[in-house]
Fold:
Amino acid sequence: MRLRPLVRVCLSTALIPTFKVEDYIVVVIDILRATTSFCVALDKGVTEIRPVPSLRACRRLAREGYLTAAERGAQKVPGFDFGNSPFDFLEADLQGKKLAFTTTNGTRALWAVRKAKKIVAGAFVNMSVLLTWLRAQEEPVLLVCSGWKDHVNLEDTLFAGAIATELEGDFRVNDDATLIAMSLYQMAEHRKKYYLEHSAHFERLVELGMQRDVKYSLRRDLHPVLPYYKDGVLIDLLRVQA
Amino acid sequence: MRLRPLVRVCLSTALIPTFKVEDYIVVVIDILRATTSFCVALDKGVTEIRPVPSLRACRRLAREGYLTAAERGAQKVPGFDFGNSPFDFLEADLQGKKLAFTTTNGTRALWAVRKAKKIVAGAFVNMSVLLTWLRAQEEPVLLVCSGWKDHVNLEDTLFAGAIATELEGDFRVNDDATLIAMSLYQMAEHRKKYYLEHSAHFERLVELGMQRDVKYSLRRDLHPVLPYYKDGVLIDLLRVQA
Structure:
């Protein structure tokens, strides 16, 4: 009998060095809001998203014809086309465009896992597509929560717990961080909104008037895309393979 | 009105650099088994425990008259007086003795937080003494889970969640890692044994025949001591102040 592959959770970007990412397919998670917005932008027709670490790199790509999205401290940075609200992309004409993207947490996580076997981005809005693809790979999976400035956060942990719970059966679980995320999700499943309303990052977003972003980011399967990271860009793997 | 001090949870030694430990009273937690055994040894009359990083340092102190405890990979190291099982100390004559102690996780955590305002060790076996002392300090508290080789573990997270839950009211909670630990504890409170039986480290200990250590480590208030770390040694603060 073939041994089922492992599914594990990394609760913060600061913990990435404690994993051998080369052994895993990595799912980068930044529910509020980078990975949610990646899915929206790709579903709206963006051909590639180039995550970059700095505002300067983002500006340089603007001169090469990229649209630009820039967020710092949960706010859109003036002078760029978009922030990282999903609604920025829902309401824009993006067909055939390329997008340069810099955010506080999500783009750092992508860089930190660059040596993984394969890298995809996950969010509630592409959850079913992600699960189908992970099951088909039959490889160990590491779910990497971006967190907030190196700290563990609730929304990414809940999503990682949801994915691990769905995968259990086809995958093995053998570590405590994964058990903790799964327990949290199973407890919160019917109270997700309650939990998130107690999250620290949620409070920051609400103070900034972004409740509708949160509500949108918790809806499932709105965008059937699979952001796949290779050679410095995210593309929709489903469209490439179609 | 005076603002209540914060209580926070650090889920792994690998996350310690993401906190400014200078701002906190730190509680080091290594339930299975270092901080549990510190409490036993101090309660049995040890005058000081000197945690050291290496077996060599432990041997050198033996020549200076210290008793020695050495654990690696959950096993007692041959040639030393004790491992880190609480029963090693329960069954020994320790009155007036000094003890050098080296373990896989717990002693590393003590070193990593050495710049904190004050440092104490916590376990279920000294829980009430710890809570009383923390409330009296009126300072921010950081609960540091030693974990297992940099990975988050269940038993330390549960204990941190228990302490944060008990302190809430007198203290403020404003971050997600703390909420996660508290949720886990509140869910597990009546199923602590069930939870721990699913923990990875528990499985390791059971494979090594150490179920009674686990059972002992989960009992509350057996040892009314407060291991206090200063100038490289742990002493019982209650005895010093008495």
Remarks:
- The first helix of chain A runs from residue 34 to 43.
- The mean pLDDT of chain A is 92.
- The first strand of chain A starts at residue 7 and ends at 10.
- The radius of gyration of chain A is 17 Å.
